[in-house]
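Structure ticket #2291
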Amino acid sequence: MVRSEPDGPLEAILVLGTEGAPERRLLKGRRPREIEEAAPEPVPTSRATVVRPEPFASSEHAAAWLAALRGDDEALAAEVEGALGVLNRALRARRAAGADPWLADVSAERALVARIGYGRGEAVADGRFAEGIELPRAGARRVKRSMETPDERFAALLGARERALVGEELVLRARSDVEAGRPREAALQVRVALEALIAELPDGEKLHEWRGPVGELANASLRADPDAATLSEALAALEAALRRHRHRA
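Resolution: structure written out below.
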């Protein structure tokens, strides 16, 4: 059950399941064994189903809703984004509850499959729809660069021909927080990322003008959500500075 406040309205029902997981009894007491080749290892697949809290008035209403979605790419994307928001809220809660820093957020680009449909509660929770559609798989988002492709830079970083900046990682974390709907965390990340880039970039002094606004954002985020427009503008400025740096590299 997903709520924003303890006594607030129910926002969604999240059902989590795992398919293809090995039985726990097979994992107990396992010891290293001799192998001749590294064969692919079957892995479990997790399935997350986000169910609306209020049912449709009738099967006709449900069918009309799905039919309208079929021809509306923006509406389909909004449905997926909303479901991902619920799932990432759950993952954030699980990270905190289990003190597990390795439990990462998910994105549409990394999903094996995304489906939208309707049906009876228990059936839908088990992955069975009265009627449903499967969305085309989204390709991994690629950064557009005029002088270098991500694969080329990846090889350069691995081969130590180029060095990844500390601020670069912090900016990526801030962007992840923004996309996952965590503006307070993003504002704090932006503040540290800004100081790192001022120190690391050859022309880092050009970012000095952001110290005041970003400091105010971070301070405000300790109490409540910071101003979204200023946060977006500040993060975009740091990302632009990094793009200029990569083009010169």
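Closing remark: Residues 220 and 226 are 6 Å apart (CA to CA).
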